Amino acid sequence: MRTFIAVLSCLAVIALFVVLLPTPDDASQQQTTQKTTSFSLPENGRYRLTNITLFDGTQWQENATLLVEAGRIVAPDAGQTTSDTVLDIDGQGGIVIPGLIDAHTHSWGNALDQALSFGVTTSLDMFTDLSFFVSKKPQRNNDTPVSEGDLFSSGILVTSPGGHGTEYGFTIPTISIPDEAETFVANRLSEGADYIKIVYDATAGLPTSRSRYTSIDYATLSAVVQAAHDQQALAVVHVMDSTSAEDAVKAGADGLVHTFANGPASDALIAAMKAQDVFVVPTLSILASVAGEGRGRAMIDNSPFSGRLPGAIESAIDNDINVRGLPDDYFLTALNNTRRMHEAGITILAGTDAPNQGTAHGISLHDELALLAESGLSPAEALQAATYGPFSRFDIGERGHLKPGAKADFIVLDKDPRKDIRHTQTIRHIVKNGAKVPAYFERTKNIGSTPDTGEISNFDIDLTPITGKRFVTSSDNIMGGNSSATLQRIENGCNGNGALSVKGEVGNQFPFPWAGALLMFTESLDNGYNLSQFKRIVFDARGTEGTFRLMVMMPGNPRPQERNFAVSAKCERISIELADFTGVDWTNITGIGWMAGATTTPFTLELDNIAFE
Known about the structure:
Layout: E1 32-36, E2 46-55, E3 60-69, E4 72-74, E5 85-90, E6 95-98, E7 100-105, H1 111-117, E8 120-125, H2 130-136, E9 150-153, H3 181-190, E10 196-199, H4 218-230, E11 235-238, H5 242-250, E12 255-256, H6 267-275, E13 279-280, H7 284-291, H8 295-301, H9 311-317, H10 330-343, H11 363-374, H12 379-384, H13 388-393, E14 410-413, E15 427-432, E16 435-437, E17 455-457, E18 470-475, E19 484-490, E20 499-505, E21 515-520, E22 536-543, E23 546-553, E24 561-567, E25 572-577, E26 591-596, E27 602-612
Parallel strand pairs: 1-5, 2-5, 2-6, 7-8, 8-9, 10-11, 11-12, 12-13
Antiparallel strand pairs: 2-3, 3-4, 6-14, 14-15, 15-16, 17-27, 18-21, 19-20, 20-27, 21-26, 22-25, 22-27, 23-24, 23-26
């Protein structure tokens, strides 16, 4: 999980379709039926979805019906319990599948709302802020209408001092020796963790390692897995290379929550995984982003989602990590390792690692299914990897299937995913707890306030902007980094009048360092300005010679979009076209930042005459 500069914000308030149930014709106990071809659903009570093709999680049924009562699936011949009336709803030939389960996410902010809008009704989180998890946990036991997907989580992960997971700006407990395992696991479970997620890197500290993090050793890994099992908890292990995977399986892990691409999986590893019934969540989506495969851009340009995605989501999936220096066959190796595991009969589960760079909650799971199909799973097997598969491996209650007793979480599709797994993207309706919820294309678009002028400030009087709320410092210090910045109005700027002076230093204690000035358009960063009428942003700048970044922030997207601009000691007029930013929804911008980065030397930056044109 990577944490970014912007603050996640909630999407627009979601309204559920509400239809009053009909009343019985008389006081007798005879069942009455009301026909309707609309697809509005009652909040509670009993209805029957007819004229559908149904995948219940394990089997397909043609010309099927689905009976729902009080947010649950009930048997077709079940007796009346809450009403003498059943509402017959024509499914109009739709394909009904269980709500999807993403088996590897990191959730905070509006993640569960966004996921649900793409049909992901349950997220299995692999490390998040504990307060967020605790606040969301009660909802999953609720069968009444809700506006978010359900959340299960490991809570705080198991890692070493200085290990992966400690770099996000908040203090977490860590483990150093095997003797700490029993208490460490007990503490996680007492906090509410649903399973134990362990970070392990057998290559940590070796000259060949690409990681800058420490890792627990093998003895501690084994002790934590054993402690989890002793306390009746599932133990899954984050690995990124074959040696770590081999150690995790040897230690008795229940599952691997990444595949690896540093080389082919050995026959011995695959045999051991099969013998011990170890499952794997390959997270091919994030490995594709690491390799710069451009999967997000393909979904933006050529998929059923095209032309209907919010700008924040386009931005999130259109910016791969694209690590330099990887072997040319890096991603192909990941696909081949997944294929070999599947061919050996190892259970494959679908997970994305959203919202890491190049991924987004909800939408990326649909592409993960396509990647699993590219790895050799049939479309039906790929679909099962995001439905019945997670249900069969994680203790998450009756989810991932549509058999009697299950939560009534399902998607109605226009096209059959058995023919092409990408047909999961042809979403017609999404149902959570038996009630219809707005899909991504049904959401009301948030439009920011239109400013009276494009002028930001010439700083002649003070630092108060003409357009926007205020200028503030921004740095990775809020994430535990050691970067810093200060703002000051100076009298003699570029044009001999006032200017904004930014001074600071970019440190080296955060993986993605930054420091600079941020113009906030609103106090909360949850809404902003509609700047779509403008073509460019212009400003005068001078300062430390080098490259700075102009960052654009949007609500609902944890990552700002950025473009570089060059600065020298000479005052220069800089113009950046808004069209040069990909995936930015200019109708609702929450902030603009002028940031230094990628240097440990002190910097200065003077800004003047900022305006949108």
